[in-house]
Amino acid sequence: MRGRTVKTVIFLLLLLIADILIVTNSSADISVNNFSENVITVSRFGGDYSNIQEAIDQAIEGSTIFIKTGIYTEIIDINKKLTIIGENKFSTIINPISQENKYAIRLVSPGIIIKNLSITNGASGLYTTGVRISAQKSKIYNCNIYDNPIGVAIFSNENIIDNCFFWNCKDEAIAMIGTKISKCDFNIVSNCTFFNNCDGIELQYSSNNTIDNCSIYNNSHSGIDAIVSSNNGNIIKNCEIYNNNVNGIYLSASSNNKIIECDFWNNDDGDVIITEDSSNNLVIDLEQKEIFSKYEKIDLNQKIETNQKFIIEENQKNNEVHSNKIFNNLFEMISNLLPILKTIFIR
Questions:
Q1: In 107-122, which positions are buried (b, 16+ CB within 10 angstroms) versus exposed (e)?
Q2: 53, 296, 304, 332: which one has the fewest Cβ atoms less than 10 Å from its Cβ?
Q3: pLDDT at 25 exceeding the cut of 50
Q4: Minimal CA–CA distance to 198: which of 238, 227, 178?
Q5: Which of 240, 232, 228, 236 is nearest to 206 (CA)?
Q6: CA distances in angstroms from 343 to 199, 257, 304, 317, 340, listed in the order given
Q7: Phi, psi of 85 (to 5 degrees)
Q8: Angle at CA of residue 23, ends 17 and 29, nearest 5°
Q9: In 3-state terms, what secondary structure has residue 312?
Q10: Higher pLDDT residue, 139 or 181?
Q11: Coil, strand, or helix at residue 7?
Q12: Who contacts 115 (Cβ-Cβ below 8 Å, separation ≥6)?
């Protein structure tokens, strides 16, 4: 455990050095001007405003707000289409203490962009959040989101989170939260890293989302946790999911999901868990193959030097596993063939 912690610290230090070099060798104001002609500067020591919320309130729709390096302890509501850019994601820090179960930043207008910030919220409460997204088509780029019970809570559609780091979120790093009557669909999470959270990503009634090219590891529960039901048509691809204390991916009563070219290892209770009343889920395009049901094991005619656990429970139809790469996992030998697995074939 100490070795993993040291590696993580070294990795973050390297990221910090790289980020400093980028900022040193480029003009932040030039990159800001690529977003908008109307640029408002916020700084603790000069600038157009010293307070972010005041700058937001005074900005016209479509403006860019450039936040200089510093620690800002205010709670931020963004209620118009704006671009918010920090000078440096390691040193431009949004760090309020909100009311219990509230947020540091809330996005309530479509089309908001947030970039280059560190975001944390020191308030108590299991549902206290770093960023709460209530509007559609928001974008969060190149941010560090950490030390929140929930890093980002999404209650809407067509949002993008790209190239962000999430750690020390006590509940979920990202929660996509729909209901039976409201949608949380067509969101994209890409090129992100999740570690030392409870769940990396949790889905509730969330469909047709894409999780692409993410590293999800060392979380105390699951890498991706699709709970409740009706998390359908999601695509999880090109991800590394490993060293999570419970599952790699957990799908509950969910259908038509695709897990494509993902690598799994050392997820304690199984790499891909597909529970009861799920159907037509597909795991494809890797190398070694082995499938486990909750009660039984079937070896799919491959040489297994080290083993992965797929757990497929009862009351399911037409789940398929094609050529999956797994390694370095311990598993318990389980006997007696389960008839429902006869529907599975290997390409």
A1: bebebbbbbbbbbbbe
A2: 332
A3: no
A4: 227
A5: 232
A6: 31, 17, 21, 8, 6
A7: -125, 125
A8: 165
A9: strand
A10: 139
A11: helix
A12: 83, 84, 85, 86, 140, 141, 142, 143
Retrieve residue 212's tokens.
């692409």
Quote the pTM value: 0.78
Q: Is the pLDDT of residue 178 over 60?
A: yes
Q: What is the pLDDT at residue 270?
A: 87
Identity of residue 310: F
Question: Class of 171-347 per CATH?
Answer: mainly beta
User: Shortest CA distance to 179 belongs to which of 205, 218, 148?
Assistant: 205
User: H/E/C letters for each residue in 268-296?
Assistant: CCCCEEECCCCECCEEECCCCCCEEECCC
What are the C-alpha distances in Å from 184 to residues 125, 178, 200, 259, 294?
23, 5, 17, 19, 30
Write down the pLDDT at residue 292: 36
Q: Which residue type is seen at 52?
A: I
* Domain boundary assignment for the chain: 171-347
Residue 62, amino acid: G
In the numeric block, the tokens 């318990």 are attached to: 332
Q: What are the tens digits of pLDDT across the range 258-312?
A: 999 999 999 999 888 888 788 888 887 554 333 333 323 323 322 222 334 555 5
Opening angle at CA 208, ends 189 and 345, nearest 5: 105
Q: ∠107-110-114 over CA atoms, to 5°?
A: 50
Strand positions, DSSP E, 168-319: 172-177, 188-190, 193-195, 199-204, 210-212, 215-217, 224-227, 235-237, 240-242, 249-251, 258-260, 263-265, 272-274, 282-284, 291-293, 297-298, 310-312
Q: Measured between alpha carbons, how far apart are the two ends of the chain, in Å? A: 39
pLDDT tens digits for 79-103?
A: 999 999 999 999 999 999 999 989 9
Residue burial 144-164, b: 16+ Cβ < 10 Å; e: rest: bbbbbbbbbbbbbbbbebbeb
What pLDDT band is residue 201 in, cutting at 50, 70 and 90? very high
What is the rounded CA–CA span in Å between residue 192 and residue 144? Answer: 10
Phi and psi torsions of 17, nearest 5°: -60, -45
